Amino acid sequence: MTDTGCPAQSVDLRIYWGVAGHAAPNSHHRRGITLNRITIELETGRVSGRVASGFEPVAAAFADNFARHREVGAACSLYHRGRPVVDIWGGFADAEATRPWEQDTIALVFSAAKGPTATCIHQLVEAGRLDVDLPVAHYWPEFGCNGKEEITTRMVLSHQAGLAAVDGVLSLDQVLAWDPVVSAIAAQAPNWVPGSKHGYHARSFGWILGELIRRISGDSAGQYLNKHICAPLGLRYWVGLPPQMVSECATLLPPEGGSNAVAELLGADSLTARVMSGPNGLFGYNDMWNRADVLEAEMPSSNGVGDARSLARFYAAVIDEVDGVRLLGPAQLARACEEQVRGADAVIFHETCFGLGYALQPALAPGAGPRCFGHPGAGGALAFADPDAGIGFAYVMNAMQFNPEGDPRSRTLVKAVYDCLATA
Fold first, then answer.
1. CA atoms within 13 A on the CB side of 190
2. What distance in Å separates the CA atoms of residue 77 and residue 146, rounded to the nearest whole number?
3. H/E run at residue 420
């Protein structure tokens, strides 16, 4: 287990529940479902929120993470059949335990951003504005050189494009400015023969897809996302955090050794190290992700910022209508979730499975349904939909942990969710 530098907490068993079915001050009605207020006292701090009857074990599991898995601050949300049934948060938004994690605290979710970004692409496909089997160069002519002429959007979405590592010498300011990094990608040669294997495109995924969104729609990826997904659903989620929201973001607590562990193990010139720290070794899992300029830039695969409530609502609206909004039609969603690749990943080595932009089971969310799709984020974040169970789930946190067997915090929450669904 990774040490975050914060002591484990014990859970005070004084759990205060609202009374189901009564519109008292401690309950909240939502389209026929009563969400009961809950408070769970921790050794320091508390868990707060609202939970529908029958889903109380999710809140208990969430609180247990503070005692058993060194949670610092986090939030978890669950939609079931288009309606919220769990909305909880707790702990602290900083390492010093001076900022309680509040209802409106937002957090960096790293690669959990890939799900919303992929959904932007699928909206363009569904509208007839993008064909995933045409070369990327059809929309972005400068891209079609140095062995990339036949790379398709399908290859990019399924991590087969061979552009996992970005070549070129770039400063951080250039990367954050967008144009220099996408120009570098357009000029480079692939890392492997496109389509011959798959390997995780940790950051280039978002730059390539974001440039496609810009060239087709005229909006940056963050602008398109806000206009067509976040605003219609009232989501507090951004790629390119507005400056006035930076103060509401939880402080990321990096894991020990997170910055250079891959390079030290495999060598700085290894493909894996180049992907995970690139471009040009600029990125590590360290305090740089708390910088305002990094949060305010657009990195559509890496720096989504939002709350669990919004990500759960987002996935609920991908699979079904939520308050009159559905993000993708059934036919497009089915195509998006068709398995494209499965097997040993050329970048991160263990088995991965991808549809068109979405991570798929079994690696996505162990213990969840077989047709789940979504995306995890580095250090623990997880957001996904299960169309069979009719759920949108999200968990966000600030204390990064890397565990080769999977994050025990999200695993505990997912198990509690499905146990509740089984008895509903």
1. 23
2. 45
3. helix 408-423
CA dihedral angle for residue 17, residue 18, residue 19, residue 24, rounded to 10 degrees: 170
Give me the amino acid identity at 273.
A
Q: Give the contacts of 56 (CB within 8 A, at least 6 positions apart).
A: 17, 38
Two tokens, residue 55: 């889903």
Cα(371)–Cα(202) distance, rounded to whole angstroms?
23
Which pLDDT score is estimated for 18? 44
Catalytic residue among 48, 77, 111, 217: 111
What's at 68, amino acid-wise? R
What confidence tier does 189 reach under pLDDT thresholds 50, 70, 90? Answer: very high
* pLDDT at residue number 363: 85
Write out pLDDT tens, residues 29-76.
555 578 999 999 998 899 999 999 999 999 999 999 999 999 999 999
**What span, in angstroms and rounded, lies between the C-alpha atoms of 250 and 6?**
15
Q: Which residues of 68-81 are buried (b: 16+ CB within 10 A; e: fewer)?
A: bbbbbbbbbbbbbe
As a whole number of angstroms, the distance between CA 266 and CA 281 comes to 14
Instruction: Quote the CA–CA distance of 276 and 392 in Å, as a whole number.
Output: 28
- Residues 277, 294, 238, 119: is their CA dihedral positive or negative? negative
259 is catalytic: no
Residue 317 DSSP class: H
List beta partners, residue 364. Answer: none
Say how far apart CA 134 and CA 176 lie, in whole Å.
Answer: 28
Contact 278, 299 (CB under 8 A): no
Residue type, 136: V
Task: Assign 28 a pLDDT band (cuts: 50, 70, 90).
Answer: low
Tokens of 421: 């669904």
Q: ω before 57 within 30° of 0 (cis)? A: no
Give residue 5's region: left, alpha or beta (phi > 0; psi -120 to 50).
left
Paired with 395 in beta bridges are: 76, 382
Beta sheet of 237-239, edge-to-edge order: 107-108, 304-306, 237-239
In angstroms, the CA 269 to CA 163 distance is 15
Please, what is the average pLDDT of the chain? 91
